Amino acid sequence: xxxxxxxxxxxxxxxxxxxxxxxxxxxxxxxxxxxxxxxxxxxxxxxxxxxxxxxxxxxxxxxxxxxxxxxxxxxxxxxxxxxxxxxxxxxxxxxxxxxxxxxxxxxxxxxxxxxxxxxxxxxxxxxxxxxxxxxxxxxxxxxxxxxxxxxxxxxxxxxxxxxxxxxxxxxxxxxxxxxxxxxxxxxxxxxxxxxxxxxxxxxxxxxxxxxxxxxxxxxxxxxxxxxxxxxxxxxxxxxxxxxxxxxxxxxxxxxxxxxxxxxxxxxxxxxxxxxxxxxxxxxxxxxxxxxxxxxxxxxxxxxxxxxxxxxxxxxxxxxxxxxxxxxxxxxxxxxxxxxxxxxxxxxxxxxxxxxxxxxxxxxxxxxxxxxxxxxxxxxxxxxxxxxxxxxxx
Length: 393
Known about the structure:
15 helices, PG_1098_Fer, alpha/beta, SAM-dependent_MTases_sf
């Protein structure tokens, strides 16, 4: 960490060049001979990446930004806020603190917080930034989190861990056994020192397979932001032997969509089926990741169009975790029949349909956009159909 970066004139230069082209700046050079130009430009690039993802850091004076990889790997403020609302008690230790975004929000919920980071420079950066952010209840430890846990030998209300998903060659990995630290080998240690453990993992993990790797799982949180699944959160509780609750959450700008069900009950849940009724529902990405396709039909009392379509319908509108549509017309999939509708522009979606969106657009000569939404799918009678809809939200 080069503290010269924090000098007033360099900070002003960084802020004044956030919209500048990095290549041009590098070619032109910067007016500070005592600091490497590349380092200043790296600060500019890193800060730009934080404008939407980490607005608190972006808008706070004298923040020191790490490299782009650290910014890429860190939680967003949106997901960090969500995680902070899951914890309670007096203390928490973040074993893989990184840039400290999750730790920062945990500090708003618990009195005593420990941030562990093995990378010396990153740990120094985080310590400086917490001071700039005026946070005083976080103890920063520059060491391996697992080693810190063993050395402290104390009890915590919560342990939080976000294993690194990069191998020794800096290649991306996502299976628990391939991440560092290896949760499978350390989970007993974690539950020995905390009643509650929160594990953040890649959204690529299979729920069923991962449940076989973990013990004492109480909840799985599937967290999406603007319909893109960002992370899976596994809540472990010491000695817990009950049913696993799956909570899907889609965090949107002005609201959030929730749906929850019991994992094992999905296999026994019976979905209702029907032909398209008045309203059509498309699940958000968090629900799709959860696999609760029968549970959502059963719990919300809505019908599926087909076992493999994952589209739902009802006569009376319900509060649904996804997109809502009013069905205007149901067409049999037929080029000649479709041409009579004179639809030349529409938003096209396929679910359980043999053709891709691009193939459909080309075949039926449909341009993208407009207020009409077309769903190409298969009904309970195995017939290819087109649902002509208008969007409700």
